[in-house]
Amino acid sequence: MKTILCDASPLIFLAKIDQLELIFEVLEGEVSVLQVIVDEICSESANEIELMRLRAFLKSVEIVDFSDSEYPSETLSKNDRSVLNFAIRNQVDWLVADERLLRRIAIENKIAVIGTFGILIGAVRKNLRTADEVQTMVDDLVGKHGCRISIALYQQIIKALEGD
Fold first, then answer.
1. Per-residue model confidence as pLDDT tens digits over 92-136
2. Which of 57, 82, 83, 123 qualifies as a cystine partner to 128, CB 3.0-4.6 A?
3. What domains, with CATH codes, occur in the chain?
4. Helix pair 131-143, 116-125: axis angle to 10 deg
5. Rg (CA), the chain
6. What is the rounded distance in angstroms from the CA atom of residue 71 to the CA atom of residue 125?
7. Distances in Å between the alpha carbon of 26 and those of 76, 95, 118?
């Protein structure tokens, strides 16, 4: 069975659009979340509805008590360093992360990476959601929920949803 490790931002953004289950459906594996990430996403700043969604999701994953953030990087946050250390040490099959540097280092260490939008596009490719549904979700994330992406990435997402 594939091992999947989730970082904070994809969990937060997928909770905002009520699509956390897609992590299981698209990647089909055992999902783990580090306790430091649970603490981050379930903080007081979380919206009540999102917090309810996150807590329900967390009941179906393995919560791992791991906080070794000794990865040598001054740019990554302490939590991202912990996620990276765990992913490398345990050679997870998938890292679900949006942070660009975290993704790049994971790929350099032969770990497959997918982010929020990759999960959504995967849902279309697996016929779990329609392209129109995902287009609306992408637009909501960018327009309503503060997800910042470049115009080039937005165009890539649209092209992928069109099947090109």
1. 999 999 999 999 999 999 999 999 999 999 999 999 999 999 999
2. 123
3. 2-117 (3.40.50.1010)
4. 170
5. 15
6. 35
7. 27, 13, 9
The encoded tokens of residue 74 equal 């001054």
Tokens standing for residue 121: 């596009």
- Nearest CA to 137 out of 46, 4, 10, 8 is that of 10
Return the closest-CA partner of residue 10 out of 90, 80, 107, 62.
Answer: 80
- Residue 28, helix vs strand vs coil: coil
Instruction: State phi, psi for 47 to the nearest 5 degrees.
Output: -65, 145
Q: What angle do CA 64, 18, 126 make, to 5 degrees?
A: 85
Note the residue count of the chain. 164
pLDDT tens digit sequence for 34-65? 999 999 999 867 789 999 999 999 999 999 99
For tokens 């981050």, name the residue: 40
How far is the C-alpha of 117 from the C-alpha of 154, rounded, in Å? 10
Decide if 93 contacts 29 (C-beta within 8 A). yes
Structure tokens at 85: 């250390």
Residue 141, CB half-sphere, CA atoms under 13 Å: how many?
25
